[in-house]
């Protein structure tokens, strides 16, 4: 563990120094001898995280670091693109909009935007919700094939409310409907008195996926009176899908 901590400190120093450090600098910074610092840097270089500039004998970011940075940047860009649509979605519908990504059998809420409706419902960014019960989660699960979903839920699905789907075949049926319509729904399955709908978007280049959606109190919407929200959500999905290269949205209306 100590060696990992020292390696991390060496990498942080590289960032602080503008991308290039010497063995002596690293040794002084992390409080080790020059030979120990040299071994740490050599180990990082062996794995491709850093590389040595043969002209200066100093170390700089390697190909693996650059690949990680590029990957992270693409993910941040996808989220930033989604946030733009969130604002438009809340402004159009008046309800709280959500942005999330899938992590195993959970959906991680990245951002929520409140609308003008007097009653708001949202959770804090970073909170994890059961994917099978949340509209955001279902939208992202619908991007996977049924075999993978069965494997994910081999240990079962806990209930959040009395309406939560806990049968795998029932869940797969809901996901099939979501793939056909483009919209996944949660009808009081996550929180009593709250309905939600969401869409999943996959970036063409990286394959990463996010979901955007809406939540609203059940009493705020009469039966079959959610056309405005559906239209707004589909409009956001088509626009975001166009920008990130998700061609699935081209033919969904």
Can I get a quick summary?
Helices cover 45% and strands 19% of the residues.
Structure write-up:
The protein is an alpha+beta fold. The protein has two domains: 2-64, Arc Repressor Mutant, subunit A, CATH 1.10.10; 72-251, Beta-Lactamase (2-Layer Sandwich), CATH 3.30.450. Helices cover 45% and strands 19% of the residues. It has eight helices and eight strands, in the order H-H-H-E-E-H-E-E-E-H-H-H-E-E-E-H. A six-stranded antiparallel β-sheet has the order 5-4-3-8-7-6, with helices on both faces. Strands 1-2 form a two-stranded antiparallel sheet. A hairpin with a 6-residue loop joins strand 6 (184-187) and strand 7. Helix 2 (23-30) crosses helix 3 (34-46). The longest helix has 31 residues, at 63-93. 32% of the residues are buried. The model has no long low-confidence stretch (mean pLDDT 84).
């Amino acid at each position: 563990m100590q060696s990992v901590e020292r390696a991390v400190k060496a990498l942080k120093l590289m960032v602080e120094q503008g991308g290039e450090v010497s063995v002596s600098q690293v040794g002084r910074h992390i409080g080790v001898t020059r030979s120990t610092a040299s071994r740490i840097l050599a180990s990082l270089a062996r794995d491709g995280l850093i590389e040595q500039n043969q002209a200066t004998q100093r170390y700089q970011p390697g190909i693996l670091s650059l690949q990680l940075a590029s990957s992270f940047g693409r993910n941040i860009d996808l989220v930033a693109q989604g946030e733009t649509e969130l604002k438009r979605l809340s402004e159009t519908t008046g309800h709280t909009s959500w942005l999330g990504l899938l992590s195993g059998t959970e959906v991680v809420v990245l951002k929520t935007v409140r609308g003008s409706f007097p009653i708001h419902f949202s959770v804090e960014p970073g909170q994890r919700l059961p994917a099978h019960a949340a509209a955001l989660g279902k939208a992202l699960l619908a991007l996977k094939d049924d075999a993978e979903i069965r494997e994910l839920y081999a240990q079962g699905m806990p209930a959040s409310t009395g309406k939560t789907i806990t049968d795998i075949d029932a869940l797969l049926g809901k996901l099939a409907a979501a793939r056909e319509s483009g919209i996944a729904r949660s009808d009081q399955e996550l929180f009593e008195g709250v309905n939600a709908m969401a869409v999943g978007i996959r970036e063409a280049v990286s394959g990463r996926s996010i979901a955007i959606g809406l939540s609203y109190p059940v009493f705020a919407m009469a039966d079959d009176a959610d056309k405005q929200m559906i239209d707004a959500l589909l409009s956001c999905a088509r626009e975001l899908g166009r920008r990130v290269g998700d061609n699935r949205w081209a033919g969904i209306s």
